[in-house]
Amino acid sequence: MDFGRLDEKISILTQTETANAFGEKVVSSTSASDIWANIENLKGKKGYEAETLLADKFIKITIRYLSTLTTDDLITYDSENYFITSIEEIPRKKGMIIYATTQSE
Hints:
The protein is an all-beta fold. The chain is built from no helices and 6 strands. It has strands spanning 8-19, 25-49, 52-63, 74-77, 80-90, 95-101. It has a 6-stranded antiparallel β-barrel with strand order 1-2-3-6-5-4. Strand 4 and strand 5 form a beta hairpin. 12% of the residues are buried.
């Protein structure tokens, strides 16, 4: 893995669920870490739903190994939140490949 290609800054957000005064679940995101990554745009699609234009972006993110990362976390890159769809480990824990999208699937 060429660590010199990790030239984009991303933020990992951890989501936590708490209950409010009425017992309802409230999801909040807290910044877990800011790390360097390599970002590749994979594809995108546009469509209409309820007369609203929806645009999905799909990206591939390469980072150094991070043991605390799960598919429940969010990634913020270029002022957009991305939902993690899958995580692949590079052998010997040298890094991780993350696939993410702007829309929850």
